[in-house]
Structure formats: C-alpha cells, structure tokens
Automatic annotation (TrEMBL):
The active site is at 67 (proton acceptor). This is Shikimate dehydrogenase (NADP(+)). InterPro entries: Aminoacid_DH-like_N_sf, NAD(P)-bd_dom_sf, SDH_C, Shikimate_DH, Shikimate_DH-bd_N, Shikimate_DH_fam, Shikm_DH/Glu-tRNA_Rdtase. It comes from Stenotrophomonas mori. Involved in the biosynthesis of the chorismate, which leads to the biosynthesis of aromatic amino acids. Catalyzes the reversible NADPH linked reduction of 3-dehydroshikimate (DHSA) to yield shikimate (SA). Belongs to the shikimate dehydrogenase family. It comes from the Bacteria.
C-alpha cells in the first residue's frame, strides 16, 4: 500500500501556496507530509480525484473552479459544507469522500485570533455571492454577528445565498446600486472576483463606513489591491487581505487529516514577507 498522500486540486494551480503551507506545518509539527498540487480541468476533475484515491490519496484541498463539483462528489458532508454548498477539504472515508468547508472558519479565526476583532453583535456586509462568499457566510453567522447583508452584481445570486443560509431576518440581500440605503457596517468583506480582472477600481458609498469598520478582502496579492485601496481612501479603521484566512483554512484542513492543530504564526509571517516581495516586484 502506498504512503498517505494529500493534494490540492485546481485550475490554474501552479501558483497555489497550499503545498508550501502544508509542508511547513508538517515540518513544524514533526509529521511527514506528502502534499502536492494537481491541475485538473473541470471535465477531468472527477477522474483525477479517483486516480488520486487509487494511488493512496486520503485527503485533498479543492480550489477554483472545483469547489461545487467536489461538493457534488462527496458521499457525506459536514453541516457547514452543506450550508455553503461548496467543499474545499476532502477526507477519504472507506471508499468514499467526506467533504468539509474550512474557508469560513479560517476567516473567522484570522479576524478574531490574529486581528483581535470581536464579531458578536456586528453588522457585516458581504460583497459577492459566488463560491468564495458562500464558503464564508455560514461561519460569519455562526460567529454571532448581528446581521449579514449580501450584495452582488447579479442580485438573484445574493438572494439564493441568503435563502441557503436559512436565517431570514439575520441574513438579508441588498441591491449593489442601493448600498447607500443600507447604513454602516463594522465589517465589509470583499468576496467578489472584481479585483482579479483588469484592475478596475472599487466604487462604494462612503456611508458604509463607521469609526470601527474593518475591511477584508478574501483575495490576496494583486487581486486585493483595488478593494484595499478603496478601504484606505474611505478611512476604514483596519484593512486586511486574505492571506491570513488562507493559512487558517489550511490549518483547519491539516487538523482534520493529521489530528493536530498546527501553529500558524510563523507560516503566516513567511508568506507575508514573500507576498510583500511579489507585490512590490514589478
Ligand atoms: P468565487 O469562487 O471566487 O466566488 P465565482 O463563483 O465566479 O468565484 O464568483 C465571483 C463573484 O465575483 C460573483 O459574486 C461575481 O458577481 P456576479 O454573480 O454578478 O457574476 C463577482 N464579480 C466578478 N466580477 C465582478 C465585478 N467586476 N464587479 C462586481 N462583482 C464582480
């Protein structure tokens, strides 16, 4: 029998930080980790995952564009994956995959443990209603926020996300063009892919911001620049990118596979230093 293998599946996957993160966790915790990146097209994803399992694959992360496909392939799922409708962590159980979604827990841990925010009783604005937004919405509600307002360029997707949360009254949708009427928020999260495109800037009403507002982009690197530039111009109290969430969701996956919660601070600091180099290098 082959050694236990782990991998991240995505397309593109060459720039994924996950192999580096899991190798660093394994080294720090004294656990030998065989974790690699596997590129698969949507059409080839299911077969690639089966081949991986046949070759000793017992755990995997799944990233763009496969999170919904992974959800559909699982025989069983955690309730947070069920609510998100997307899976980023797979665990082999017998002859089948068990699916989880650690993105939301990763975000909440980054905001609370690393940045010291108290989410309880806060109004939260979630921009976007795609896979990234769906991954984090359940955990935000579970963290005890007062209200989650979801705004998306295509309003029907915001409505669908809110319906999937099953918390009428606490999770609401809003029209992007009418955000001015929504009052102010202590937390504004960019879960859109807008910054990944041609660099078009963000234009959001300044009325969304109060003296406590933290702005978080789930992207990191260059994709986070437009939203974080808006946040600074709008005088948000804090603004963070998604690098901390990336490390924390990986730690959640690591814990499920290896039974140990790895320390994340050193890995985060190393990635932050590297990210700064990449962002400033032209
Ligand atoms: P992901 O898994 O990263 O969430 P996705 O499921 O394709 O990717 O979702 C992309 C999100 O970014 C969607 O909310 C999308 O809005 P639409 O549902 O209207 O497509 C949003 N998005 C992409 N480009 C955007 C832009 N230029 N302005 C605002 N929102 C944008």
């Amino acid at each position: 029998m082959s050694a236990a293998r782990y991998a991240v599946f995505g397309q593109p996957i060459a720039h994924s930080q996950s192999p580096r993160i899991h190798a660093a966790f394994g080294e720090a915790e004294g656990i030998a980790v065989d974790y690699r990146a596997i590129e698969a097209t949507p059409a080839a994803f299911a077969a690639a995952l089966e081949a991986f399992a046949a070759d000793g694959g017992v755990g995997a992360n799944v990233t763009l564009p496969h999170k919904e496909a992974a959800f559909a392939l699982c025989a069983t799922r955690t309730s947070r994956a069920q609510r998100a409708g997307a899976v980023n962590t797979l665990l082999r159980k017998g002859q089948a995959w068990h699916g989880d979604n650690t993105d939301g827990a990763g975000l909440v841990r980054d905001l609370t443990a690393r940045h010291g925010l108290d989410l309880r009783g806060r109004r939260v604005l979630l921009l976007g209603a795609g896979g990234a937004a769906r991954g984090v919405a359940p955990a935000l509600l579970d963290a005890g926020i007062l209200e989650l307002v979801v705004a998306n360029r295509t309003p029907e997707r915001a409505d669908a996300l809110v319906d999937a949360m099953g918390e009428p009254g606490r999770a609401l949708s809003a029209y992007w063009d009418a955000l001015r009427e929504q009052g102010d928020f202590e937390l504004i999260i960019n879960a859109t892919a807008a910054g990944r495109g041609d660099g078009a800037g963000f234009s959001l009403p300044l009325s969304l911001v109060n003296s406590l507002t933290t702005a978080v982009d789930l992207n990191y690197g260059e994709a986070a620049i437009p939203f974080l530039a808006w946040a600074r111009a709008a005088a948000c109290r804090n603004s963070f990118d998604g690098l901390g969430m990336l490390v924390e969701q990986a730690a959640e996956s690591f814990q499920q596979w290896h039974g140990v919660r790895p320390r994340t601070d050193d890995v985060y600091a190393a990635l932050r230093a590297r990210d700064a180099l990449l962002v400033t290098a032209d």
